[in-house]
Design brief:
heterotrimer, A mainly alpha, B alpha/beta, C alpha+beta, A: mainly alpha, 7% strand, C: alpha+beta, Arc Repressor Mutant, subunit A, 3 domains, 15 helices
Amino acid sequence: MITKQELSVLGDLAQLSLDPDSRDSTLQAINEVLELVAIMNTAECDGVKPLAHPLEAEQLLRSDKVTEVNQVAKFSQAAPLFEEGLYLVPKVIE
Amino acid sequence: MNLNNATITELHKLLTDKAISATELTQHFLSRIAESDSEINSFITITPEVAIAEAKAADLVLAKGQHTMLTGIPMAHKDIFCIEDIRTTAGSKILADFIAPYTSTCIEKLRHAGTVTLGKTNMDEFAMGSSNESSYFGPVHNPWDKTKVPGGSSGGSAASLAACLCVASTGTDTGGSIRQPASMCGLTGLKPTYGRISRWGMIAFASSLDQAGCFTRTAEDAAILLEHMAGHDSKDSTSLNLAVPEFTAALSEPLAGLKVGICSDYFKEGLEPEVENLVMDGIKELAKMGAEVVEIELPHTKFSLSAYYVIAPAECSANLSRYDGVRYGYRCKDPENLEDLYKRSRSEGFGSEVKKRIMVGAFALSAGYYDAYYRKAQQLRRLIKNDFVSAFEQVDVIVGPTAPGTAFPLGAKTNDPVSMYLQDIYTIAASLAGVPAISIPVGLSKGMPVGLQLIGNYLEEAKLLRVAHQFQQQTNWHQQQPQRNLL
Amino acid sequence: MNIPAGWQIDIGLEIHAQLNTKSKIFSGASTLFGSDPNSQASAVDLALPGVLPVVNEAVYAKAIRFGLGVSADISRVSAFDRKNYFYPDLPKGYQITQMDLPIVSGGHIDILLQDSTEKRIRITRAHLEEDAGKSLHEAFDRYTGIDLNRAGTPLLEIVSEPDIKSAFEAVAYARKIHQLVTYLNICDGDMSQGSLRFDANVSVRREDSATLGVRTETKNLNSFRFLERAIYYETVRQIDRLEAGRSVTQETRLYDHNKDETRPMRSKETATDYRYFPEPDLLPVIITDETIAKIKAEMPELPTQRQQRFIEDFNLAATDAALLANDRNLADYFEATIKNSQDPILSANWIKVELLGHLNRDAVSITDSPISAIQLGDLVALIQAGTISGKIAKDVFAALWTGETSSAATYIQQHGLQQLSDPSTLEPLIFDILKANPKQLEQLRSGKDKLMGFFVGQVMKQTQGKANPQEVNSIINRLLQEAV
């Protein structure tokens, strides 16, 4: 089960803010899910190789060719803030 | 014949016999949507101009005799599929105004085959849910009983077909999101083998589980749709590099000698008694048709829900990181700095179920917990897959209930998320393993539809469809209609 | 550089080399440098909803070539992972990289220390990943502009063990890597364009300490000079802190070349948990023995091999061979020159002295040389054939350099610069000069050999430098003997 402190860390990792009102209910909701999945602890899995892909297949590689054209006009239409060819975010100081 | 509940096969004959034009057929369904959908809320975006233009083009193709089985067939598509120049929302505020700049492969294939696009259907936000109550665009109502849910996450696609607002619809299934709503709405819902249909253009929830599929009135219609939707796509690295079988070819082969497996784990507590009875009746029907019923074991079934609720949130937590208000989608007002931009755009844009799953996923992957959660879940996944591999050495298909009960009332499970998750208890294992599965109507319990789930071996959709088709030749559950449709 | 006594430094370098493929690692967009912002950002690079990555086959060939070049192990099964963090130049909110199963493991690079001994620096691993986009902070007042052209460019990240013990060694190692990746034609090595970038992990410990100290990481150094300065600054900074009884904080830092100092990075991403997990959208890549054998057979010559060949085939002195083989572009230029000139040693001299002299004077790189290898080859051939003298050749070279002419032969013709070698023309001329300078002639006759230079100089003056010096020498000697 996770603590309030851990919840806060998760919020940062996932870039989600937790307003004080819903913090408790969110914590409870997450802990309910963790309770649900706790049954995994009873499973014997020693030596079992994790399955990352349901298909046991190999990656097909594509040849090194330029196949895309400049679509900046079309794609940038969806942008909330786009000027002089750039996507804008609040100024970042490194 | 009533156009409302005609199948693709029947309408194809009408169109080629010139008994009706594609334009008339499309206008018929557009009118029905305009009349009835306000009660159901199955559509997020209706596309009448696009539909009429496509119908007119279909009429030209029909006139030249160059048609396919799908030319002129009006369809609705789950709003998880990008369609160029059409709003695509994934049921979320964060994409509420997103106009897709490209079209997903499987929809492109259907349109190329001549289908008509009626609109984009409602869904649980980012495909996370089993009742279609988490959509930013409001819940969907089950046409069989408006006070009840249609199932989810492809609730809109199911409800629109059940309410006869389209002839067939597309959906996606990650843990049961086609099969469960099909069960609750009295439809045939197919989830093919993982990789059978390209995921290019299908907004990702859980990459290794998501699969496109369809809702139809019959297994035969599903076979026709699958033939057109399936196929290798070089833009999707996980798509099967295999030729598409003729799924319609062997539908009529009799079932004699077919081995049908039943697993006791699918008949434990939690399954409504009436549902169990109807499912058992369905199995008896299969036996009458010549199938041999065999008992099988799937020993790791009890872990499938927990493995799923670790893997799916983990993958979704990463897949949804791109929604940050920078290149598209919802952006909060006057962000003060970068962190404010991210946190507020995402927190205001996502609903609570999505946010919860993102955080569960982040937790399962985090340092110190990865081994106990994510890695363990992937190990269990292999064991669950192995269970199916062993079972299919003994049987041809596995049969059981699709869902533990019928459609429940709207709001009934809002405060009981775990009971909501348990809706998928029978469907999840097939998703984890990547095997194909189909849900077909097997009766009514207190007036509400019940589904029979058939699970097949990898790549054996043809066999599944054959069993389903034969079942639908001998029974007529799939032809049952909600009362409202007959008014 | 003065490092306080009693301390030792441990440095590990992470070098990011942009692979010179035509298209990106996971999308078919172009990797060309310097295009209009976001004109090379495809749907996949923008992380639009519903997009998926597909792997470029060329990145594997190049990574394997690198592995073979450093004698490393090539992984037969290679897969990708997601590294999760938020930053505007990372559109997906995760980077696709290789954590668990990198394509290359182990290997080494040998460097030359100041005392000319060799030292082996071990390589931990090299893996494939995608580059991020660019953040432009200066363009707007209140905003940072994001250009995603670079997002998705393939990177090979080369990680060394902390075997490097000084800034000198770090630069030597970095230079060797630069040389290798350009030689193997897997990276263009243009650091001004960001093709090769260094992250330096630096820690210090007392000489008698067996464990490594707390390390800092200084990121995105894009020149050998900055690498050297940043390591030096970090070393001194850390030692100062520890000597004052304070501790070193494990953190990520940036080098400010204007102030010649490092400072901590302010973005939070540096302290985050990356939550690596296998990339579900990409399947494992299987590399067969056949593939590796094929790549091995097609390996370009390595720098040391080329250097050796220059010595054996062209009879170059070891130092000349080393100089010319050091930079692949220069080595290519040299061999192209020889094709026309047929004279390796003379070509080597002209490149070493005149060409490199001009290139350095005007701060021009060999790839931008105004004189092509063909032109230089022609010039050297003309010298070799005796058509012009070495002295005149320098004038012709200058004319080629400024672009006054594009053909040495034409220029020589137009200005009548052909070397005078014909004895029947030279002899009367020399005879007259000898006669006109009786005093010097007498001195020369009596054994003052250096007066030969005087007479040769006079002949040169008379012939505007065109006389063939060897011929002049031999005629003077003959005339002396004939007792003029």
